[in-house]
TrEMBL record:
Single annotated GO MF: hydrolase activity
Keyword Hydrolase: yes
Name of the protein: Glyoxylase-like metal-dependent hydrolase (Beta-lactamase superfamily II)
Xref: SMART domains: Lactamase_B
Domain of life: Bacteria
Sorted UniProt keywords: Hydrolase
Biological source species: Streptomyces paradoxus
Length: 248
């Protein structure tokens, strides 16, 4: 299956999987992979690495924004098959092990089934492994504060609310923000286009998700790579503030 890969900046690729995105950062022969899609996106994930001239063997590390199945879905497969470390914020490590689950329940989805797009999204999520058991056996917290010694030199930015340990990744050198689900530009269950929070049912603690938009608004950059939706070009600060206005 051909992957929908977009070269958005030097050594930076945004990949659209099935209703979710991941990011590939390249430096020479090495790669950083940010998020891994649904379990059902594995073929597309591997194809995306090939399309940028790489392979799973070249992945130095997998970085996870948060441990929902549409972002974590292939992390344990990659770790077990190829031996690369899987890094998350320390607050998200037990979530990745599935010691608990901060994820929208089937009951909540059904209660919101009358909303446009929710039922088709739910059917797709189920078919793609959205409720599959995919814990990461040995997730690791970031080894140090600040920029990580990986391709792209991503800087983790703790943005809790969607989950306790949700983390965005800032690339100051290229003006890129990989925002995960803290700030998106679209979603199958949203009728809004452009910078926004996900619908309320998806957030573990919505007030903290709102507060995290203020954190993102302090970051310098002109390129937003969200966990859902297309690339957004323009000041990250403006995108974060626009999402906050829409959410109030």
């Amino acid at each position: 299956m051909r992957a929908d890969v977009h070269h958005v900046a030097d050594g930076t690729y945004l990949v659209h999987g099935s209703n979710t995105n991941w990011v590939i950062l390249t430096e020479g022969d090495a790669v950083t992979l940010v998020d891994t899609g649904y379990p059902g996106d594995r073929e597309q994930l591997l194809a995306s690495l090939a399309e940028v001239g790489s392979s799973p063997e070249a992945v130095a590390a997998v970085l996870i924004t948060h441990a929902h199945n549409d972002h974590l879905g292939n992390a344990e497969y990659l770790r077990a098959a190829y031996g690369m470390p899987v890094h998350l914020h320390e607050a998200e490590v037990p979530h990745a092990r599935r010691e608990f689950l901060h994820q929208v329940s089937i009951g909540t989805v059904l209660k919101n089934g009358w909303r446009p797009g929710v039922l088709p999204w739910a059917v797709h999520a189920l078919r793609s492994g959205g409720t599959a058991d995919v814990p990461v056996t040995a997730p690791q917290a970031f080894p140090a504060a600040g920029a990580l010694d990986l391709p792209g030199r991503p800087v983790p930015v703790h943005t809790p609310g969607h989950t306790d340990g949700h983390c965005a990744y800032h690339l100051p050198g290229t003006g890129v923000l990989i925002s995960g689900d803290a700030l998106v530009s679209g979603h199958p269950t949203s009728r809004v286009e452009g910078p926004q929070l996900l619908p309320d049912m998806f957030h573990h603690e919505r007030p903290r998700a709102l507060a995290s938009l203020d954190v993102l608004a302090e970051l310098e950059g002109e390129l937003l790579l969200p966990g859902h939706g297309p690339v957004h070009r323009g000041p990250v600060r403006d995108a974060a503030l626009r999402a906050r206005e829409r959410a109030l």
